[in-house]
Amino acid sequence: MLFCRISRNLRGSFNGCRWFLSLGDRNHRFLFSHGYLSPRNSIEQVMASSNFPKGLPTLHSSRYQIHHQSSSVVEDELDPFSLVADELSLLGNKLRSMVVAEVPKLASAAEYFFKMGVEGKRFRPTVLLLMSTALNLPIPRASPPIELEDTLTTDLRSRQQCIAEITEMIHVASLLHDDVLDDADTRRGIGSLNVVMGNKLSVLAGDFLLSRACVALASLKNTEVVSLLAKVVEHLVTGETMQMTTTSDQRCSMEHYMQKTYYKTASLISNSCKAIAILAGQTAEVAMLAFDYGKNLGLAFQLIDDVLDFTGTSASLGKGSLSDIRHGIVTAPVLFAMEEFPQLREIVNEGFENPKNIDLALEYLGKSRGIQRTRELAVTHANLAAAAIDSLPQNDDEEVKRSRRALIDLTQRVITRTK
Fold this sequence. Notes:
By secondary structure, the protein is mainly α. It has a single domain, classed as Farnesyl Diphosphate Synthase (Orthogonal Bundle). It contains 19 helices and four strands. The protein has helices at residues 43-49, 80-83, 85-98, 104-115, 123-134, 156-181, 193-196, 199-219, 223-244, 248-251, 254-279, 284-311, 314-317, 323-326, 332-340, 344-350, 355-367, 370-390, 398-416; strands at residues 18-24, 29-35, 186-187, 190-191. A two-stranded antiparallel sheet has the order 1-2. Helix 12 (284-311) packs antiparallel against helix 18. The protein starts with 17 loop residues before the first strand and ends with a helix.
């Protein structure tokens, strides 16, 4: 039980506006360094002082810069999901075939998300399929799903489709486990699996999906890709543990929050994007740009998610609004509000089991710029994601250019979404 054997104990100073996250593998070491906004730091000052991987341009040079005032992209918009609609349909069929199990009850549980349509628009597979084309990979004619027993998929596009399938299975498995840990009762408007079938079967279904993802991953026979995605699973567990075992200082630290956010949300999409580049035989620099895109897109996505927990409704979000704060989870809007109202820290340290503390925290949040500053930070990361795509080697192929514009368009959709 990869995620659910961790004890459930959600307890946890905003002692800095800077976070550093370094991740290493055999060949690279990534350093994330952001000066998060303080009363003395504007967005522009933060961007000027931040350190990003070599080769990533400053935002003023990007043709695709997103402006949070207008939320517009300096290129014609297009629907990213329509560009890969046929492949997404095949991917859905393949996923359903991959969750067939000898024990019917387990197969039923594993298929629940797919059958009930709660997997959403398949955001992550869309990103990965677009990234494949953006790196100049041809799209072959649709072919029947490849059986799990196939030990090696020789067609490059099919192998990258396999990465999209693996990523989606890891994502859904993490949702199943998270719902158990969070005692969730709904997911996108319907009963969560742990409510419908119980915690034990929900955990086993998540484990089953992870095992299927491992089988598909092994079929690629690429040790670097295997290592990347195995690290993702470790990051998911690490992030969840960080969330559940925080000290008071960690709970109020932006550095700790951003590390946790990377592990829980951005690691999966960033490392999957890098895997796409590796399978394509791209250079280390291009692979790094793919990683940067996924990392910053994932961070922007989660920051907006944290905003929507306060501004959205249960119906639009598919979960109870204020769910984070009710579970004692302190996110960016509250952390930014704490800068303006230090007395909020005392309320955070007391916890939110008392509804009066929730009301007080919301009162301070409403008086602060916490929501606005979180949105601004999300735009900062969306701009960095766009800049990473803008830095890819020039390519005159129309399919490549269209896919790159679609990836840029996704950065806008992430920061303007309402659910």
